[in-house]
UniProtKB/TrEMBL annotation:
PROSITE patterns the UniProt entry points to: GNAT
InterPro entries documented for this protein: Acyl_CoA_acyltransferase, Aminotrans_V_dom, FeeM_cat, GNAT_dom, PyrdxlP-dep_Trfase, PyrdxlP-dep_Trfase_major, PyrdxlP-dep_Trfase_small
Source species, domain of life: Bacteria
Protein name, as recorded: Aminotransferase class V-fold PLP-dependent enzyme
Record's keyword annotation contains Zinc: no
Xref: PANTHER family: 2-AMINOETHYLPHOSPHONATE--PYRUVATE TRANSAMINASE (PTHR42778:SF1)
Keyword presence, Cell inner membrane: no
Record's keyword terms, sorted: Aminotransferase, Pyridoxal phosphate, Transferase
Cofactor: pyridoxal 5'-phosphate
Molecular function in Gene Ontology: transaminase activity
Organism: Bacillus seohaeanensis
Domain (N-acetyltransferase) ranges: 6-169
Length: 533
């Protein structure tokens, strides 16, 4: 049961102390038989006057606690003689005791919230080591957060304890919980988003989205829709742009529905996840087509495509992915357009991960798809299709997939979201390709200098940084570690897990400082993993 109104604080009120004594009794008399029972069902610790109690409260109820004290002798001094002989040189310890969370809250984040506050307290008071008598029932838990056993077990047959200590260094490197908390203390105050979607948004884009929704039939909406489409066309040198409520997958289905009207056969080129998805789109629409299928990240040369078109005179259209998101590979769009124009073939382009990231010119592109939520830096939810030739409705195409319906109704044949359009409008104003290249070049330099294997040269997008990890480091484990530290990257897709890759997408509103922070944390995290191998 995850709680939503949890308060973590240092206990100061009498009623809080009374509840602490009750919880102390429940845990260390009834659950762990360390002390004798009494009628009051209350247990006051012998060091109560010296303890600082950190408590977790919900709706006024104390549901968890940790006690901290630094005065010697510790309670552990009475159980194990000459403790200092076991401790590292220069140790300045405090003792952590009476760690308890009510049973019904033990599978929530209460424990971690308590530890977070404990870390703050230790740092503020310059302690570099915490000692604990870990109950033998929870030794694995203590080890997971970095505690190291020392000395023999202590206690009685009914309640055995393992002396353990946790250093500041372990706070930072070993414990998942402490790593996250320590990074918060070091200034990583927010999650840094390096996903290709949803992307980090500029505050002005967020504000535009929060405007009061208006009717998609109102003149204000019609005017803004027209202005957004005009700016999009100007950005990519297209004559027309249709905006549809949906995703990139829908945009490609809209393209496939138009391709089906063309005579002759087609050619679909694939060298990554999204190229192979185009093959799936074409197959589902029962298009008649050939394929050039490459290994992932294998380059596709213009010479190879030229030879194919020379050998197959029946090809009337070609469909490619401009930026292969799964690797960052970037097709040479200018040369591809020249090639298809020379062979009188219509070129269709999946540009979902390139518009707003790199300079694109769709002058000789028949159809191109993109989305609102990647390089354009807005919310996901809008599919965009660019076209150079007029398109009319076709009753053989399902209504929602009939691009002619959108062209006929100025992109609004059906219900639209004024919030998404307003946000996209604001985002398009902020597209800065030069900034994207500067970020990518700096990031790649930092990564290669640190010894990482980074895909790509000038033929790769500055919006997708793909890193191949060594086989002894799991990409999934690395992604999880970075997530705990507030760095959100692409790593969970099956195609990334299979190849042991992680990806940083430089799309949306990302600063140089955020890139530097991410690189530093990545280096620190992988250094720890290498040491553990």
């Amino acid at each position: 049961m995850e709680q939503t109104k949890l308060t973590i604080k240092i206990a100061t009120e009498p009623e809080e102390m009374d509840q602490i004594y009750k919880l102390n009794y429940e845990t260390f008399v009834e659950e762990i038989p360390q002390h004798k029972q009494n009628r009051n069902r209350s247990l006051i610790d012998k060091f109560d006057k010296e303890n600082t109690y950190i408590v977790a409260k919900e709706a006024g109820e104390v549901i968890g606690m940790i006690a901290v004290r630094a005065n010697r002798p510790f309670s552990l001094d009475y159980k194990l003689k000459n403790i200092d002989q076991y401790l590292p040189k220069g140790a300045k310890p405090c003792e952590v005791r009476l760690l308890s969370v009510k049973k019904e809250y033990r599978k929530t984040r209460v424990f971690f919230r308590l530890v977070n506050s404990l870390v703050s307290y230790c740092l503020e008071n310059n302690y570099n080591m915490a000692l604990i008598s870990g109950t033998d029932r929870q030794i694995r838990l203590y080890k997971r957060i970095g505690f190291e056993p020392f000395g023999p077990m202590v206690g009685s047959e009914e309640a055995m304890f393992q002396p353990m200590y946790l250093t500041k260094e372990k706070f930072e490197t070993t414990s998942k919980a402490f790593e996250k908390m320590m990074m918060q203390k070091k200034g990583v105050a927010k999650r840094l988003n390096f996903l290709p979607g949803p992307v980090p948004l500029h505050e002005d884009v967020e504000q535009a989205f929060k405007q009061v929704a208006i009717s998609h039939r109102s003149s204000d909406f019609v005017d803004e829709m027209k202005e957004v489409r005009t700016k999009l066309c100007s950005l990519v040198n297209a004559k027309e742009a249709q905006i549809v409520v949906g995703t990139g997958t829908l945009a490609n289905d809209l393209v496939a529905a138009q391709i089906k009207k063309l005579p002759g056969k087609g050619l679909v080129v694939a060298n990554g996840e999204f190229g192979y998805r185009l093959i799936d789109h074409a197959t589902r629409f029962k298009l008649d087509f050939y394929t050039i299928e490459k290994q992932w990240n294998e380059k596709v040369s213009m010479e190879e495509m030229e030879r194919f078109l020379e050998m197959h005179n029946d090809v009337s259209w070609v469909w490619i992915v401009h930026c292969e998101t799964s690797t960052g590979y970037l097709f040479d769009l200018e040369k591809t357009q020249a090639l298809t124009k020379r062979h009188n073939v219509k070129l269709c382009v999946d540009a979902c991960s390139s518009v707003g990231v790199v300079s694109v010119d769709f002058k000789d592109v028949y159809l191109a798809s993109t989305v609102s939520g990647k390089g354009l830096g807005s919310y996901p939810g809008l599919a965009i299709v660019f076209h150079q030739e007029p398109i009319v409705p076709d009753r053989q195409i399902p209504r929602y997939l009939d691009l002619g319906q959108y062209a006929l109704a100025d992109s609004t044949p059906y219900t639209h979201s004024s919030n998404l359009i307003s946000a996209l409008h604001e985002a398009v104003k902020r597209v800065d390709l030069e900034h994207r290249y500067t970020l990518a070049n700096a990031f790649k330099q930092m990564l290669t200098s640190a010894g990482f294997v980074v895909f790509g040269d000038e033929e790769y997008s500055p919006g997708i940084i793909t890193i191949s990890l060594p086989p002894f480091i799991s990409s999934k484990d690395m992604g999880n570690k970075l997530k705990e530290k507030g760095i959100i990257i692409s790593y969970e897709s099956d195609y990334l897990v299979k190849r042991n890759w992680v990806q940083f997408a430089l799309m949306g509103n990302i600063t140089s400082h955020e890139v530097e922070t991410a690189c530093t944390i990545l280096q620190q995290t992988i250094a720890v993993k290498v040491e553990q191998v």
